[in-house]
Amino acid sequence: MAGVQDQLEIKFRLTDGSDIGPKSFPTAASVATLKETVLAQWPKEKENGPRTVKDVKLISAGRILENSRTIGECRSPLCDVPGGVTTMHVVVQPPSTEKDKKAAHLPKQNKCVCVIL
After folding, report:
1. Which terminus of the chain has fewer Cβ atoms in its 10 Å neighbourhood, N or C?
2. pTM for this predicted structure
3. Where in the sequence is the domain holding 18, given as residue range(s)?
4. Backbone Cα Rg of the chain
5. Are 114 and 77 contacting, i.e. CB atoms less than 8 angstroms apart?
6. Would you write out the chain's pLDDT as a tens digit for each of its 117 residues?
7. What is the number of structural domains in the chain?
8. How far apart are CA 82 and CA 86, in angstroms?
9. Looking at the domain assignment, is residue 109 inside a domain?
């Protein structure tokens, strides 16, 4: 039975409500590994799919999961049912454009205006 407990059934819910999976993963697998799986199995007919692992964010139990952590470290005892399927939400972060990069380096201007009557 220890082998079964070391595995999690995970399905990935996309923003349009469709799913990838479920698929079984060892609890020692990293979040980056999950993202690679999502990237590899992303439906080809869907527009605006992720291009790299950096474009994918996984959310489980309301938390954004960090690439360096393992699935076992990210488990929520309230949400994970033994023998059940864990649903992780997938958010695709659109790639930043050159315009966005340039705007990030500009100082922010104060738009507050005071009127004295």
Report:
1. C
2. 0.72
3. 2-96
4. 19
5. no
6. 445 568 889 999 998 899 998 999 998 999 999 999 999 999 988 877 888 889 999 998 889 999 999 988 887 665 556 678 888 999 998 766 555 555 566 666 666 666 776
7. 1
8. 10
9. no
